Amino acid sequence: PVSKTALVIGWNGAGKTAVIQSLRGGSSEPLPTRGVIKNIATLKYGPPDEQLECALEMIDVGIEPKLEAKTASYQQWLSQADAVIVVLEATKTIERFRPEELKHAKELIRRMSDEPEIREKPWLVFANKSDREDTLPVEQVLELFDLENIFKGRTWQLQRCSALTKEGLNAGSAWLVCKLLDEGRPQGLPSQHASSSSGTVVR
């Protein structure tokens, strides 16, 4: 497989480490990340005879939930990143009861998306926790986090997902593999993976 590297960003508690572990086929309930953890997942897409395969090293940085500290903690890894994976907590709970966290998460994405080393890289945004009853619809995630403005003119995808049930992880990773291996947008995905009604928005 071709080796690539992705920087994984997001606010504390969004499920970054859980998403990474689920992509690797492991437990979706890891302990909170402390320090820097690098995990490799072998991601595949396509029919067996034409399968694209990518060994994706995902850099997960655990640090206190302060905007300046989190922004600074990612700086040394920017030059290594071939892509960026963003993990958001897409629930009504964060919207209603933790608005400061939502505000910080949005500002973190905005700041990181302006970094010269990664602004032109593919960005995969996972709207996590779709298994919960208070999960937000895709349209609301777009609006709450101002994603269309932040990523205007960029290569990006918003994918609804659950680290717990693994819903959406394959669709998101397939898109990322195709972008990383310069194969363009995935062709022949099932229709439910290509419509905003089921949680995928492709730009």
**What summary fits the major beta sheet?**
7 strands, mixed
Mean pLDDT level: 89
Strand order within the widest sheet? Answer: 2-3-1-4-5-6-7
Report the order of strands and helices.
EHEEHEHHEHHEHE
Beta-strand residue percentage: 25-35%
Structural class: alpha/beta
Q: List how many beta strands DSSP finds.
A: 7
- Amount of helix: 25-40%
> What is the CA-atom radius of gyration, in angstroms?
16 Å
**What is the first-to-last residue Cα distance?**
26 Å
Task: Please work out how many helical segments DSSP would assign.
Answer: 7
Describe this structure in words.
The protein is of the alpha/beta class and 203 residues long. The protein is 30% helix and 25% strand. The protein has helices at residues 16-23, 67-74, 92-97, 99-113, 138-144, 147-150, 169-180; strands at 2-9, 35-45, 52-62, 83-89, 123-128, 156-160, 200-202. The protein has a seven-stranded mixed beta sheet, with helices on both faces. A hairpin with a 6-residue loop joins strand 2 and strand 3 (52-62). It starts with a strand and ends with a strand.
